[in-house]
Design brief:
This protein has helices spanning 17-28, 47-57, 93-98, 101-105; strands at residues 8-14, 36-40, 72-75, 82-86, 110-114, 128-134, 140-146. It is an alpha/beta fold. It has one domain (20-117, 139-146): Rossmann fold (3-Layer(aba) Sandwich). Strands 1-7-6-2-5-4-3 form a 7-stranded mixed beta sheet. Strand 6 and strand 7 form a beta hairpin. Helix 1 (17-28) crosses helix 2 (47-57). The longest helix is centred in the first third of the chain and has 12 residues, at 17-28. The protein is globular and about 40 Å long.
Length: 147
């Protein structure tokens, strides 16, 4: 019997907000309809800036702001729509179901869930998980586990 370990971690550093947006913009190129991405990491680690770049990279020129209070912002008009959610203030799963979580998953767009780890049971098994953290020098690190 032979085991082949193919686990790897991709890590990228961004040392300015603009560089963070550039990473999101680059990620847009490989996005397919129905893709779900959970963004995990503390306040201020760059999750919303990455999403700004993603929305721009998909060809939508709307201004992207944090959906912390409204739970969800929708960005149509690009190559496919982006549904940008933030679970930070979410109290329970029912709240998200009530605003149409299942419909967002089936809408043929990209679903971005900041603080996705707060309700991981909501994320489909094929979701990608990006981990954001802050370095000692103030730059931000994004890590993604792959197999
Ligand atoms: N790579 C980075 N380097 C330095 N500052 C950054 C970087 N990414 C974001 N910021 C700054 O951090 C703050 C929070 O960014 P934001 O994207 O709102 O984080 P989050 O959504 O994770 O709370 C903003 O003031 C932004 O300009
Ligand atoms: Mg945010």
């Amino acid at each position: 019997m032979c085991f082949i370990f193919t686990d790897f971690v991709m890590q990228t550093l961004a040392d300015t907000p603009e560089a963070m947006m550039e990473l999101g913009r680059a990620a847009a190129a490989g996005m397919r309809p129905g893709e779900v991405v959970a963004l995990v990491g503390g306040l201020g680690t760059g999750k919303t800036h990455w999403t700004k770049g993603l929305v721009a990279g998909l060809g939508c020129d709307a201004e992207v702001t944090s959906p912390t209070f409204s739970l969800v912002h929708e960005y149509p008009g690009g190559r496919m729509p982006v549904f940008h959610l933030d679970f930070y203030r979410l109290e329970n799963v029912q709240e998200l179901i009530a605003i149409g979580w299942d419909e967002y998953l089936d809408a043929g767009g990209v679903v971005i869930a900041e603080w996705g780890d707060k309700f991981p049971e909501l994320l489909p098994p094929e979701a990608r998980w990006l981990h954001f953290s802050m370095e000692g020098d103030g730059s931000r690190r994004i890590s993604e586990h792959g197999t």
